[in-house]
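From the pipeline queue, job 12 of 40. The input is one protein chain; the requested action is below.

Action: predict structure.
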Amino acid sequence: MRAPPVLLRLLWVRGWGQPPRRCLGAMARYGTEQRGRPNTPDYRLYFKNADGKYISPFHDIPLFAGSKEDKEIPAKRSKTTGTEVLFNMIVEVPRWTNAKMEIATEEPLNPIKQDTKKGKLRYVANIFPHKGYIWNYGALPQTWEDPNHKDKVTGCRGDNDPIDVCEIGSKIHSSGEIVQVKVLGVLALVDEGETDWKIIAISADDPEAQKIHGIMLHSE
């Protein structure tokens, strides 16, 4: 399945052991459980629902932030802030960290793990004066870049991963946190010949969220 058409239309228009961790907001309905040591190939961050049952962040957490999502997966009513629809973002990589964490789409329950390449753990390089990721990085649940579909914009097929999100708010979020975000824009990238869309968003709770309704990207 490709990304829901309503999401794409919005984007164009709005041109993880240790005891489960509990968070406020949307995350209050979910918990996480760590297994293994961070910065090792065996590290995993698993998700649980409010009843303590293991769930998949990829399949079981709703795409839309809705008032009825506790009882309905996916939510049939989407939460809005004014006229803007809110989405659930699964944080994989907190801002200012280097380990490249991602949802393990091919493992049971789809925990978050550290990505590897050629048998080595992956880390993002620092770009002075910043360290690691300059935003909170994650994904939209229940979305997928179809490797069998050629994107009309990029001319390339999908990368077989959930759609990525760059959350640019002021707070540093934790890996495994569920954040309700407002979409500000979208950026199409081609990575090793594959389409890799990046959603630019801001947490609905951010002090600046009500002041920002879109972004303009310039190339020189």
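Job complete. Confidence is low (pLDDT under 50) at residues 1-24, 69-77.
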